[in-house]
């Protein structure tokens, strides 16, 4: 059998992308190798030796901002293809690049405007957390946090132990038995440590975190669980308020100009 077999590719992709634990990955990998009889391939052995560099099971807990290895380059290539074609004259290339930069700046201005001026409708059952998330996070990150808030309703928790500095919980999905997630909340910062490592990997609290905060009667997302780079104030802290204001102003002026053009037609 060839390692290019379609079924092998599907199974390999699951090993690469699924959020298995390290133990689960080892079991899935062994099962895949035996199923497809590929243990003698040098490429398969090499990939297994380098599993810490590509398998989701070993990459969790390392911060990538939610991006996969080729996502940025693939996204930029797709964006450039809308503006730049082969055999463009240099002057046409420069014009197209100017259009591209204007489009990027317009998109950034709209995102900043929506985040700073917009107020999303609260839809989850945990409005005290959702309201705080809407106030602190940018609009894009708020949507991800809200997804985790909505998942919280399907999760239940049982206290596992308590000492002076921390409390341990065992969390599982409703009607799912045998698979539990261990959670530890530490005082006085109320920092929640979860083995799913969503906070360490992406930088937002997971649904398990919210169920523990609720069990502890903590009505606000702890500051230690809010990553500053995903907040509305991130640009102000890094570059000062002038840059953020300029992108919003540019967007508003451009939108106003478009509105005047259409109104005069």
Report on the architecture of this protein:
The chain is α+β, with helices and mostly antiparallel strands and about 260 residues long. Among the domains are: about 5-60, no CATH class; about 125-230, no CATH class. About 55% of the residues lie in helices and about 10% in strands. It has helices spanning about 5-15, 20-35, 40-50, 55-60, 70-80, 90-115, 125-135, 140-150, 200, 205-215, 235-240, 240-265, and strands at about 155-160, 165-175, 180-185, 190-195. Strands 1-2-3-4 form a four-stranded antiparallel beta sheet, covered by helices on one side. A hairpin with a 4-residue loop joins strand 3 and strand 4.
Shape: flat
> Which range does the strand content fall in?
5-15%
Structural class: alpha+beta
The sequence of SSEs as H and E is HHHHHHHHEEEEHHHH
Mean pLDDT: 81
Number of E-state strands: 4
Walk across the major sheet and give the strand order. Answer: 1-2-3-4
Radius of gyration: 24 Å
Secondary structure layout:
Elements: H1 6-17, H2 22-36, H3 42-49, H4 56-59, H5 71-81, H6 90-117, H7 127-136, H8 139-151, E1 155-162, E2 166-173, E3 181-186, E4 191-194, H9 198-201, H10 207-215, H11 234-239, H12 241-264
Antiparallel strand pairs: 1-2, 2-3, 3-4
Helix pairs in contact: 1-2, 6-12, 7-8
């Amino acid at each position: 059998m060839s390692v290019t077999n379609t079924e092998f590719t599907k199974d390999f992709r699951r090993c690469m992308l699924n959020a298995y634990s390290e133990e689960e990955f080892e079991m899935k990998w062994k099962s895949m190798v035996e199923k497809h009889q590929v243990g003698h391939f040098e490429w398969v052995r090499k990939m297994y030796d380098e599993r810490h560099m590509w398998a989701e099971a070993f990459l969790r807990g390392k911060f990538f901002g939610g991006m996969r290895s080729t996502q940025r380059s693939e996204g930029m290539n797709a964006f450039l293809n809308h503006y730049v074609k082969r055999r463009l004259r240099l002057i046409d290339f420069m014009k197209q690049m100017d259009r591209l930069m204007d489009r990027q700046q317009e998109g950034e201005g709209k995102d900043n405007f929506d985040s700073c001026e917009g107020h999303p409708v609260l839809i989850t059952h945990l409005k005290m957390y959702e309201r705080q998330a809407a106030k602190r996070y940018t609009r894009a990150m708020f949507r991800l946090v809200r997804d985790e808030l909505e998942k919280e309703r399907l999760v239940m928790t049982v206290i596992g132990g308590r000492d002076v500095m921390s409390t341990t919980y065992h969390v599982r999905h409703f009607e799912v038995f045998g698979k539990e997630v261990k959670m530890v909340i530490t005082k006085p910062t109320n920092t929640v440590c979860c083995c799913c490592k969503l906070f360490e990997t992406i930088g937002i609290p997971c649904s398990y975190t919210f169920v523990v905060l609720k069990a502890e009667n903590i009505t606000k997302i702890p500051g230690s669980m809010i990553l500053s780079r995903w907040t509305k104030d991130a640009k102000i802290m890094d570059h000062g308020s002038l840059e953020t204001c300029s992108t919003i102003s540019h967007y508003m002026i451009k939108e106003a100009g478009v509105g005047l053009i259409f109104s005069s037609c």
